[in-house]
């Protein structure tokens, strides 16, 4: 098992460029199944979850060609639908949460699909009902085999429908959109997710010949077409990485420039970090974070404690709440972190408490952070990463801490962050990869 050994308390300096967006990649890559023509996609992050999906596409019969480090072409001319019945598919599909995203395009183009119950982060239940209810509204029939933990879906006659989503699920919306673009008639999706990643998908599909209107709103209208063609697409930079780097700069008192961030697509993210007292400047399409000895959390206008909560876009993304929480531990002031969307994402705070942070875990969804204003540094400890975002939060804590920290189970971090140790070393961080077994406790 690999681990990161980090010597903390070192100020970092320099420029860092965010990778392509992981959450966009899982949608965009699945969309290549909608056409037999060639699609070129650039700014693809070189991370495990994305690479697994690319490998799965290859197993399905997609011709995949890597042009350079972050650019691939895909040609889904000869899809092997019998691959669904193979043990390989069960193993690979079940181990990758993003594999659910291939169902919509396969239903649209071939009228059938199957998927093992997907895996992924241990952050509580993540329902797939939204996906399947949407497919059912379009005319699909599905059967869940509880013994094999397998979904089989038949959609030989998809027809447009009015769909009111019970939750504004990003992956659910994307999957239904991909199923609807080749369905007969008009589909209306209300309470649709409107994240930039979904907007990117819809724009790409329109370039392929789809007819989607309402992009960027929560009401999408899709007129079905008979066939889609090829296109070229460049993915957005990963907003979660950008937020992580802002938090890392503040925690380590570092002067960092984050390059090519597509600032206009970041929504409220910069403003939320400013509420924590973090100074940042927009410089063209870069974000400059100066070295700060102290940062102070805002209060509400009436003086009451600030609450930062996640909500569907254009609200604050849940993937950055873990980062906000760890950054608040070294701020001046208090904040209530309210994680509404996932039930176990705050369970890593015990490790921060072991490092010296002052946090009260109120319940599975809420934590109150008492910022210590850098009066003393967090202390390095050994810890295990439970999921991608908590893992990076612990990594940021370790970079700011006094002494040495060891983070085990870094495979979780590397599912979402490309070459993170190499890129941090370029800024001056003392981080190295070691072979080590996680502690048994």
UniProtKB/TrEMBL annotation:
Pathway: Cell wall biogenesis; peptidoglycan biosynthesis. GO terms for biological process: cell division; cell wall organization; peptidoglycan biosynthetic process; regulation of cell shape; UDP-N-acetylgalactosamine biosynthetic process. It catalyses: phosphoenolpyruvate + UDP-N-acetyl-alpha-D-glucosamine = UDP-N-acetyl-3-O-(1-carboxyvinyl)-alpha-D-glucosamine + phosphate. Coiled coil: none annotated. GO terms for molecular function: UDP-N-acetylglucosamine 1-carboxyvinyltransferase activity. It is found in: Cytoplasm. The keyword Cell wall biogenesis/degradation applies. UDP-N-acetyl-alpha-D-glucosamine binds at residues 97, 319, 341. The active site is at residue 121. GO terms for cellular component: cytoplasm. It is an enzyme of class 2 (transferase). Pfam families: EPSP_synthase. CDD domains: UdpNAET. Phosphoenolpyruvate binds at residues 22-23. Keywords: Cell cycle, Cell division, Cell shape, Cell wall biogenesis/degradation, Cytoplasm, Peptidoglycan synthesis, Transferase. Residues 7-421 form the Enolpyruvate transferase domain. Its EC number is 2.5.1.7. Cell wall formation. Adds enolpyruvyl to UDP-N-acetylglucosamine. Belongs to the EPSP synthase family. MurA subfamily. NCBIfam families: murA (TIGR01072), PRK09369.1 (NF006873). This is UDP-N-acetylglucosamine 1-carboxyvinyltransferase. It comes from Pedobacter frigidisoli.
């Amino acid at each position: 098992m690999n681990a990161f050994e980090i010597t903390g308390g070192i100020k970092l300096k320099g420029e860092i460029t965010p990778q392509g967006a992981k959450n966009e990649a899982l949608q965009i890559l699945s969309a290549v199944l909608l056409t037999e023509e060639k699609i070129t996609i650039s700014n693809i992050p070189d991370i495990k979850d994305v690479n697994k999906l690319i490998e799965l596409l290859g197993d399905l019969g997609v011709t995949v060609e890597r042009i350079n480090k972050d650019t691939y072409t895909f040609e889904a001319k000869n899809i092997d639908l019998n691959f669904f019945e193979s043990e390989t598919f069960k193993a690979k599909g079940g181990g990758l949460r993003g594999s659910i995203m291939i169902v919509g395009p396969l239903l649209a183009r071939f009228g059938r699909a199957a998927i093992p119950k997907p895996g992924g982060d241990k952050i509580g239940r993540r329902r797939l009902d939204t996906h399947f209810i949407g497919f059912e509204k379009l005319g699909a029939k599905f059967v869940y085999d509880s013994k094999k933990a397998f979904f089989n879906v038949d959609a030989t006659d998809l027809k447009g429908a009015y769909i009111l989503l019970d939750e504004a699920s990003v992956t659910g919306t994307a999957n239904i959109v991909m199923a609807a673009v080749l369905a007969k008639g008009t589909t209306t999706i209300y309470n649709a997710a409107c994240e930039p990643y979904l907007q990117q998908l819809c724009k790409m599909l329109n370039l392929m010949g789809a007819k989607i209107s309402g992009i960027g709103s929560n009401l999408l209208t899709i007129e079905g077409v008979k066939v889609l063609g090829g296109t070229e697409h460049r993915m957005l930079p990963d907003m979660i990485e950008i937020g992580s780097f802002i938090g890392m700069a503040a925690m380590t008192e570092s002067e960092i420039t984050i390059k090519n961030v597509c600032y206009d697509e970041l929504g409220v993210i910069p403003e939320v970090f400013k509420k924590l007292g973090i100074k940042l400047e927009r410089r063209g399409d870069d974000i400059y974070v100066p070295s700060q000895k102290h940062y102070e959390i805002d209060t509400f206008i009436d003086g009451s404690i600030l609450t930062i909560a996640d909500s569907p876009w254009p609200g604050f993304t849940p993937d950055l709440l873990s980062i906000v929480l760890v950054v608040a531990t070294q701020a001046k002031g208090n904040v209530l972190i309210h994680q509404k969307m996932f039930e176990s994402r705050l369970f890593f705070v015990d490790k921060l408490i072991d490092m010296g942070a002052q946090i009260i875990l109120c319940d599975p969804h809420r934590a109150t952070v008492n910022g210590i204003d850098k009066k003393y540094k967090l202390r390095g400890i050994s810890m295990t990463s439970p999921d991608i975002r908590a893992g990076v939060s612990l990594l940021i804590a370790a970079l700011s801490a006094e002494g040495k920290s060891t983070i085990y189970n870094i495979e979780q971090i590397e599912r979402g962050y490309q070459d993170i140790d190499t890129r941090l070393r370029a800024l001056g961080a003392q981080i190295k990869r070691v072979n080590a077994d996680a502690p048994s406790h």
